[in-house]
Fold this sequence. Notes:
This protein has 13 helices and 14 strands. The chain has helices spanning 2-28, 34-57, 76-82, 86-89, 94-97, 114-121, 166-201, 210-240, 253-270, 306-322, 369-372, 380-390, 416-432; strands at 61-66, 71-74, 99-101, 125-133, 139-151, 154-164, 249-252, 274-279, 283-286, 301-304, 328-335, 339-346, 394-400, 404-412. The strands form three sheets. A six-stranded antiparallel sheet has the order 2-1-6-5-4-3, with helices on both faces. A hairpin with a 2-residue loop joins strand 5 (139-151) and strand 6 (154-164). Helix 8 (210-240) packs parallel to helix 12 (380-390) and helix 10 runs antiparallel to helix 12. The two termini are 44 Å apart. Residues 319-320, 323, 346, 348-349, 351, 359, 364-366, 371, 376-382, 405 line the site of adenosine-5'-diphosphate.
Amino acid sequence: MQYIIYVGGAVIAVVIIGGIIWFVSSKRTKHKSAAGNTKLASSLRDEQTKNSIILNSIEDGVVLIDDQGIIRLFNPGAANITGWKRDDAEGLDWKSVFKFADSKGEPVAEDKSPFTHAMRSGQTVRDNNANLMAKSGSTIATSFSVSPILDNNQVTGLVGVFRDVSEERQEENQRAEFISTASHEMRTPVAAIEGYLSLSLNDKVATIDDRAKEYLEKAHAATKHLGELFQDLLTSAKAEDGRLTNHPEAVELGAFMEQLTSDLHFAAQKKNLVLEFIIGNSNVIDATAGANDKVVRPLYYAFADPDRLREVITNLFDNACKYTDEGKITLGLTGNDTVAQIYVKDTGHGIPPEDIPHLFQKFYRVDNSATRTIGGTGLGLFICRKIIELYHGRIWVESTLNKGSTFYINLPRMSAQQAEAVSAQMKTAQDTNTAEAAPAVTPQVTPPTPTISTPNVS
Ligand code: ADP
């Protein structure tokens, strides 16, 4: 299946490049000699014929949009998927033909579409979870790739390639549903087994000989691991289908991180690791030494659920502890006008460069002698990524083998005024809901547009 997608992608790329060369060349040929023109024209006609055969035969939808947003090419694949006839679509503004919906079927604003993103960013935009509204009004699960046509770094048009992925999406949903139900159902008996094993190991409750104790300790550790696996499976299934409970609010990250550092310092101490918290570029707060000097520091606000954020940073911290034998773990907070950056740095084993691109995928674990002996599910970083993406953030790692790793999180930074406005709105909404349990509130203030790309924010 993937092979077909790659081949399809390559063919389409050739067609698109061919088309663009033809488009650009057709302008230049005006200045050439008549004889040259005839030869060139015939070879271009050949190219055109080849291109149109490919464009007419492939199942994928291909659309070419000019700099005014007008559809200039709409292949039969596009017509099949959207229900628009080629002659009707060509000449129309793309916004009349390509309308998107969210997972609940509600219309998505035009500026969130892959076409607008590609037009604005000048970069290829892929969206495997797009829901396209067909001409008939029905919603089709689609996967989109929209590439800009650049001329001197100016976007002069867009090429969109898209396919109907309804079947794949349905299978994915069934798989996720199964994993979610199975892990939910299995958590309860596993918790019961773990509880009884704990009781058996408790001297005050049960009397067992040393050999039985050794076996039960192993069974207890394995059951604990199984329980964590089910919990992670459930969380990742929820993260994938958008069911993760999420109550975002304006969080002042400095105070939040300081509290978290102090909550985590026992775990670091247990492994004889120093834990410190750095805010800005130089204000160091040594959590293990218990220092709590008040320093003047910038306030970094972000719009996120503090419980979810705690889950992410604790996960990164747990990994830092797990994969560091000696030295220091640093939690840090820095940023610029638009970005708040959190980082978790360790002086541990480091990660081989070839593993880094896969680290945030589901079930990915580095396979070496060091990690084989350390338990884990390979789901932690996947869950972290999913949560950070909920807040339009980005997470990545930089690492040097045998020296250590730094995990970075960039979140869109809110100004103090925005944070205040959001908090005030949420309070008003809660006050008006006093009688009932307050539901999650989505503030009317739009968080700042993320500018999240540079790993090092100075
Ligand atoms: P796991 O449950 O295996 O820790 P994660 O998704 O949290 O799963 O991490 C995936 C893999 O990334 C780990 O198996 C480990 O090999 C590697 N890894 C994560 N954090 C670190 C770190 N701080 N130092 C070294 N390797 C790490």
